[in-house]
Amino acid sequence: MVLEKWFEEVWNKGNEAAMDELMAADVVIHDLMGGDGEKVIQLPEFKRMFRSLLADLSDVQVTVEHKLTQGDMVAARCVITAIDRGDGSGRTPIRFTGMIMVHVREGKIVESWNYFDFESMYRQME
């Protein structure tokens, strides 16, 4: 499944190059904001958000808890764990959840709708 491969390669392994393999160049991304408040709607903004998050977090693990597939649409509920790199004073474990639905065409994500509890993530990073 493309979505499970996405989480494994991109997030669990930190493999940015896998984005180009698994996401269409003209992807449309809904309901996602970067930490700087930038609206993430296409692949370049997603890559910036990815790099920013990995600068703050280590040992990211996304676990797909539930998934549903109907035709070319896939939805998943996820649990995300990571370590906050912090300001050097310690390494704090964090945990939050999220849901995503993607439209897949020819093995690539062409559109995604996202809900991740980044508010909870940032609270744990304070």
Quickly list its features:
single chain, 5 strands, 126 residues, alpha+beta, 5-stranded mixed sheet, globular, Nuclear Transport Factor 2, Chain: A
Task: Identify the CATH architecture.
Answer: Roll
Stated plainly, the CATH topology is called Nuclear Transport Factor 2, Chain: A
Main beta-sheet strand count, sense and barrel state: 5 strands, mixed
How many β strands by DSSP? 5
What is the string of SSEs from the N terminus onward? HHEHEEEEH
Helical residue percent band: 25-40%
Distance between the termini: 35 Å
Number of domains: 1
Helix/strand-derived category reads alpha+beta
Shape annotation: globular
Q: pLDDT under 50 segments (min length 5)?
A: none
Number of helices: 4
Q: Mean pLDDT, nearest integer?
A: 93
Overall description:
- With 126 residues, the protein is α+β, with helices and mostly antiparallel strands.
- The chain has one domain (2-125): Nuclear Transport Factor 2, Chain: A.
- It has 4 helices and 5 strands, in the order H-H-E-H-E-E-E-E-H.
- It has a 5-stranded mixed sheet.
- A hairpin with a 2-residue loop joins strand 2 (57-70) and strand 3.
- The protein is globular, with a radius of gyration of 14 Å.
- The N and C termini lie far apart (35 Å).
- The mean pLDDT is 93.
